[in-house]
Design a protein that fits this description.
Layout (H helix, E strand, L loop, with lengths): L1 E3 L17 H18 L5 E4 L3 H12 L4 E4 L16 E2 L10 H11 L6 H9 L1 H10 L19 E2 L5 H14 L4 E4 L2 E9 L2 E9 L4 E5 L2 E4 L20 H8 L4 E2 L4 E8 L18 H4 L3 E3 L7 H4 L8 H15 L4 E4 L5 H7 L1 H9 L9 E10 L2 E3 L11 E3 L4 E2 L11 H19 L24 E3 L9 H14 L6 H12 L5 H15 L24 E2 L8
Parallel strand pairs: 1-9, 2-3, 2-10, 3-6, 10-17, 16-18
Antiparallel strand pairs: 4-5, 7-8, 7-19, 8-9, 11-16, 11-20, 12-15, 13-14, 14-15
Helix pairs in contact: 2-6, 2-13, 3-4, 7-16, 11-12, 14-15, 15-16
The structure holds flavin-adenine dinucleotide (FAD).
């Protein structure tokens, strides 16, 4: 059932399902408040996603006087941003031993030839003023800089080992107090709306299952990655790459989706895994920066065998080294050894990791911690320029759903929060430089398809049903875990593709197929993409993989 915003249905009679998180229930009162605000408002910009990228952008747009609507699929704080531990990579004048050229070089080296050098330079050199801005409005960074894998210097700014949360909280406080901003939680964007070739709005489904259309001059995707399409993932399960499917259906270019970064050290609780609430709990790379070592099931150190940088090599190298050791020893995990890190350091620098492991019965100063790799970060995504513009008019993308050329074939640790913080500034400047020119009024309370006399003739980007059974998602997760993981081959990829193509239309089916098609197209191994049937890097593939939806011809 589709509704106009002007006919809001109060959430009376809402049945709380067991699926709904406690947090979402707590936030429900706010959803109701926002609901009524939305019904009578006009918006300049719609932002899909309430992570650090979306909120920081909303802060900037609303500060400049724009009316902003933010949609969050579940609770406003649920997304990868909240879980970020390590921090933000930044070359800072407070850190005289570091310099921006070195940060640029490290980023380009990790990218294996696929990053855009201009983008890297623009983001890295713009970092410090943006970090100062965060500090000014209340992010209390620690005074030291951490070192993480493949960084030449200690340059990761952090708030103990819970940096994402420490940034998100003051951002959310600031944005939610601004009367120009409406935040709708439990509100899933299911498709984008177009007027000719321009994106002019979005269709949302709320937690009661009703659909609403909303128009604005600027539509911005900040919807996070696709890690939730894997079972073994550090990402919240809601992050199923929806924005990538939405943009693809709207005609945008999708770039380098085959590059999915796996985090090497995710806590593994063995057969009792399912009983742990935070079963895919990540152990930040910074502990390896502080001296933690990797041992196989026989207690042997092995990282040096695979790369001279040992535990601090790039994540793809460390992850594959772990998988190789697991195979060689017949074990389903390896161990992280933090026993040589002073207890005081563990407690002060990694209190969240220390306490969580302690809750699971591990004392890090005494015990080896079982770990193994899990899907972690979506490197590719919606192709954009440095200002977040996609290849479709009216549509921007930023944060983890976007691919602007910063990472190439591999993301350097802690460069993604940096990207969210800096690129939101670029996008804001770009959006604010444009006038209201969509040709569609942002009178969101009117149903666009029914607005008479409007110059706007809105069409839906993808007419098929956008929800499919949870079983489909489970099947996709099983298939991606098995065939589209750290090691891929044409045989496994084709098998997964055939099975997923049989499922009903949905945004996560679209994204999974785009991922597989990208992985099939790159017949080489580079960065995070390893093909067992093409184990070498090939100069034929020193370019991006780009997929665009074929245009349907009506004859
Ligand atoms: C455990 C963990 C640790 C990490 N540690 C670090 C680190 O130390 N340093 C670093 O740089 N990076 C780290 N990362 C990566 C980093 O956290 C993310 O890349 C970054 O936070 C992404 O921010 P975002 O705003 O793009 O998306 P997210 O924070 O993931 O937010 C996505 C938003 O989109 C919304 N959304 C999705 N689909 C829809 C839809 N269909 N309709 C409406 N809303 C939708 C979600 O509800 C959510 O609000 C880590 C990631 C994880 C998972």
């Amino acid at each position: 059932m589709r509704k106009a915003w002007g006919l809001p249905r109060p959430l009376r009679g809402l049945v709380m399902t067991s699926v709904m998180t406690i947090q979402l229930r707590r936030e429900l009162v706010r959803v109701m408040v926002e609901w009524s605000r939305v019904s009578s408002s006009r918006y300049d910009s719609i932002i899909i996603g309430s992570g650090i990228a979306g909120l920081n952008l909303a802060r900037k747009l609303s500060q400049a006087g724009q009316r902003v609507f933010i949609a969050a699929k579940e609770a406003v704080t649920e997304g990868s941003s909240k879980y970020a531990q390590g921090g933000v990579a930044v070359c800072s004048p407070l850190n005289p031993e570091d310099n921006c050229d070195s940060h640029i070089e490290d980023t380009l080296r990790a990218s294996k030839g696929l990053a855009n050098a201009d983008t890297v330079r623009a983001i890295v050199t713009s970092a410090w003023p943006r970090l100062e801005e965060l500090i000014k409005f209340g992010v209390n960074f620690d005074k030291d800089f951490n070192i993480e894998g493949s960084h030449s210097y200690s340059r990761v700014m952090h708030v103990a080992d819970a940096t994402g949360r420490a940034i998100l909280k003051p951002l959310l406080d600031k944005v939610s107090r601004n009367h120009l901003v409406s935040i709708a939680q439990g509100t899933e964007c299911i498709s984008l709306l177009k007027n000719g070739s321009r994106v002019v709005g979005a269709r949302f489904r709320n937690i009661t299952g009703d659909d609403y259309d909303l128009l604005a001059d600027n539509i911005i995707l900040a919807s996070g990655g696709l890690g939730g399409l894997y079972e073994e993932s550090t990402n919240p399960s809601i992050l199923t790459g929806d924005g990538i499917a939405l943009a693809y259906d709207a005609g945008a270019q999708i770039e380098n989706l085959e590059f999915v970064q796996f985090h090497p050290t995710v806590f593994f609780a063995g057969r009792s895994q399912a009983s742990f609430k935070q079963r895919n709990f990540l152990i930040t790379e910074a502990v390896r920066g502080a001296g933690a070592l990797l041992r196989n099931i026989n207690g042997e150190l092995f990282a040096q065998k695979y790369h001279p940088d040992a535990e601090l090599a790039t994540r793809d190298i460390v992850s594959r080294a772990i998988i190789a050791e697991m195979k060689a020893t017949g074990a389903d995990c390896v161990f992280l050894d933090m026993r040589d890190i002073p207890r005081e350091t563990l407690l002060t620098k990694f209190p969240n990791v220390y306490q969580t492991c302690r809750n699971y019965g591990y004392r890090l100063e005494r015990d080896l911690l079982p770990v193994r790799p899990a899907a972690h970060y979506t490197i590719g995504g919606i192709k954009t320029d440095i200002n977040g513009r996609t290849s479709v008019d009216g549509l921007w993308a930023l944060g983890e759903c976007a691919s602007n050329g910063l990472h190439g074939a591999n993301r350097l640790a802690s460069n993604s929060l940096l990207e969210c913080i800096v690129v939101s500034d670029f996008v804001a400047t770009d959006v604010l430089s444009l006038g209201a020119d969509s040709g569609c009024h942002s009178e969101s309370h009117r149903h666009p398809e029914r607005s008479e006399g409007s110059p706007c003739s809105v069409s839906h980007c993808e007419p098929q049903a956008k929800q499919s059974p949870c079983d489909d998602l489970s099947l996709i997760r099983t298939l991606l875990d098995k065939h589209v993981s750290l090691e891929r081959s044409a045989e496994g990829l084709n098998y997964a593709r055939t099975e997923i193509a049989k499922l009903a239309e949905s945004n996560y089916r679209t994204t999974a197929l785009l991922l597989i098609d990208s992985a099939l197209a790159r017949k080489e191994s580079r960065g995070t993409h390893y093909r067992s049937d093409y184990p070498e890097t090939s100069s034929d593939f020193e370019t991006s993989t780009i997929i665009t939806k074929p245009i349907t011809q009506h004859v």
